[in-house]
Amino acid sequence: MNFNATSGARYRKSAQKGSRKKRVSDTAAINAPAYPPAYPPSYPPPYNPFASAVPGTVPPNMSAYDDRNAVPPPYASSPDYSHMHANAPPMDQGYSIPGQFLNEPLVANVAMQYGQALVGSGRQLVDRELEKYIPVSRLKYYFAVDTRYVLKKLGLLFFPFVHSDWSVKYEQDGPVQPRYEINAPDLYIPTMAYVTYVLVAGVILGMQDRFTPEILGIQASSALAWTIFEIAVELITLYITNIQTNLKTLDLLAFGGYKYVGIIFALLLSILFHKTGYYAGLIYSSFSLAFFLIRTLKVQVLPDGSSPHHNDPYTHSSGNKRRMYLLLFVAGIQPLLMWWLSFHLISPPTPKS
Fold first, then answer.
1. Banded pLDDT at 75 (limits 50, 70, 90)
2. 53 vs 42, 58, 59, 80, 233, CA distance in Å?
3. Cα gap 288→100, rounded to integer Å
4. Residue 60 to residues 54, 65, 92: CA-CA distances in angstroms?
5. Angle between helices 259-301 and 188-207 (to 10 degrees)
6. CA–CA distance from 286 to each of 125, 255, 344 (Å)?
7. Looking at residue 107, what is its pLDDT?
8. For residue 85, what is the DSSP state?
9. Which of 120-124, 255-259, 310-314 tops mean pLDDT?
C-alpha cells in the first residue's frame, strides 16, 4: 500500500477552498424569491384620456366627441372606444331622423295648414297696403267687360243718337258691372284705345319717314300727360264750383279716355283720304263723343227729384247752371284735345330750303 504524505494536505486545502463564502454584488438578488410569482407586479397603467373612471360609462365631456377623428397620444397603445357607444339608444326604439319625422301624416297636415294660413295672411297684408295707393277693388269693376260689351260700347260711341235709355242700374253694393250695363263707364276700351293710338301714330310716322323710337316714346308720354292734365282741371272745377255728383276720378278718366277711339278713326281715314278723310273723321267723332258725354254725364251730374234742395228755387236754379256749365266744359274740351293730339301726324313739317 502506497502512502502519499501530501494527499491529506491537498484534501484539506480543497475543503477549505470550497467552504469559502461567495460575495454577491447585486443586493436585489438577495431578496429575490426562489420561484417567480403567480401574478405580475401591479405597475400603474399609462395615461389614457379616453378612459372612464367608472367602467361601462361614458366619460364626462365626451358625448360630442367623435371617436373616428380621435388621435390617441403616442404612449397609448390601441385604446378601446367601445364604451363610448355602449349607452347609445338603438334607432328602432322610437327614434327617427328629421326626414322621417316630416313624413308623418299629422305633422304634414299641421305644416300644410300653417303654410296656407301664413300665405293667406301675407296676401291680405299686401292687398291692404296696396289698396292705400291703388284702388285695386275698384279697378276690377272698370275692367269687368266681355266681347259683347266692347262691341256694343263702340257702336254707342259712334252712333249715340239712336240710344234712348241712358240710366245706370245699381245693385245693393254699387253700380252694375259694365258687362251687364252698357251705360256704365269702363277703363278697358280707353286703355286699349290709348295703346292703339300710339301704334297707329308710329305707323303714320313710318309712312312719312319720320319714325324713330324716341319720337314714339314722346308721343305716348305726351298723350298721357294731356290726359292727366284734363282730369286735374275737371277735379279742380268740381271742387271750386262745389258740385256734388256721383262721379269719381276713375269715372272721369274713363269718359276722357273714349276720345282716343275717335282719334284712331280719324287717323285711319287720313291714311286712305289724307287730310280730307282726317278732318271728316275728326269732326264726326268729335260731335258723336260730345253728344255721348252730355247724355251720359247728365244722369250723373244733374240732380234728381230725391235731392233735399230740389224744391228750393234759388238752390235748384244756381246748382243746375253750374252743372250745365260743367257738362259743356267736359264735352267741349274733348274735340280740342282730339285735334291737338293728332294734327301733327297728318301734317309733316315743310323741309327747310
1. very low
2. 18, 9, 7, 14, 93
3. 73
4. 11, 10, 26
5. 150
6. 45, 13, 17
7. 66
8. G
9. 255-259
Nearest to 216 by CA among 191, 197, 229: 197
Nearest-CA neighbor of 56 among 80, 78, 23, 25? 80
Q: Which residues of 57-77 are buried (b: 16+ CB within 10 A; e: fewer)?
A: ebbeeeeeeeeeeeeeeeeee
Question: Distances in Å between the alpha carbon of 143 and those of 177, 220, 224?
Answer: 9, 22, 19
Q: Which residues pair with 175 in a beta bridge?
A: 170
Q: What is the pTM of this model?
A: 0.62
Count Cβ atoms within 10 A of the Cβ of residue 231 and give its class: 0-12 exposed, 13-18 middle, 19 or more buried: middle
Mean pLDDT of 77-86: 54
Helix residue ranges per DSSP H, the chain: 5-18, 98-102, 105-131, 136-142, 147-158, 188-207, 213-241, 249-257, 259-301, 313-340, 343-346
* Residue 227, phi then psi, degrees to nearest 5: -65, -45
Average pLDDT over residues 87-114: 59
| pLDDT value at 349 more than 70 | no
Q: Is 88 helix (H, G, I), strand (E, B) or coil?
A: coil
Spatial separation of the C-alpha atoms in residues 227 and 184, rounded to whole Å: 20
How far is 263 from 269, CA to CA, in rounded Å?
Answer: 10
Q: CA-CA distance, 120 to 126, in Å (whole number)?
A: 10
Helices (H), 78-212: 98-102, 105-131, 136-142, 147-158, 188-207
